[in-house]
Specification:
The chain is of the alpha+beta class. The chain is built from three helices and four strands; from the N terminus they run H-H-E-H-E-E-E.
Amino acid sequence: MNTRIPYPLHPLRYARGSSLMEVLITVLVMAIGLMGVAQMQISGVRNQSDAFQRSIAIQQVNDMMERMRANTPAVASYVTANAAGANPGCITAGCTAQQVAQFDVYTWVTDNGQLLPSAVSTVTAADASGRHTISLAWTRRDGSNDQVTMTWSP
């Protein structure tokens, strides 16, 4: 009894190179997967940067709101349109309420310019209901503009 398989029908004849094809397909699938992971990483870093800038802007707007709350008698002196003005230079010698407001605006606008790209800091006068609007706009990494605005009434 001859159990030998004839040569043309032998399974190894048709299996030549199949391991190489499996490896090549596996490498291709892994490469596509790794490119997707890299793209997700890039997107995550970009979104983290935008969120960081937004959190700085919110902190800065809250800072100005607290400065205005602490110096309510001179709240009208806080109105500004991105002009830092001058440092009154009286902090160590004692300031009037208006000079404290001038110093607060000076430091706030200066800090915003250092912390956020192309920052535009604005405090508007009270509207009919007595609310002041504090806003901070800046340019994001992708070139688009973003803004944080809060209202405050004494």
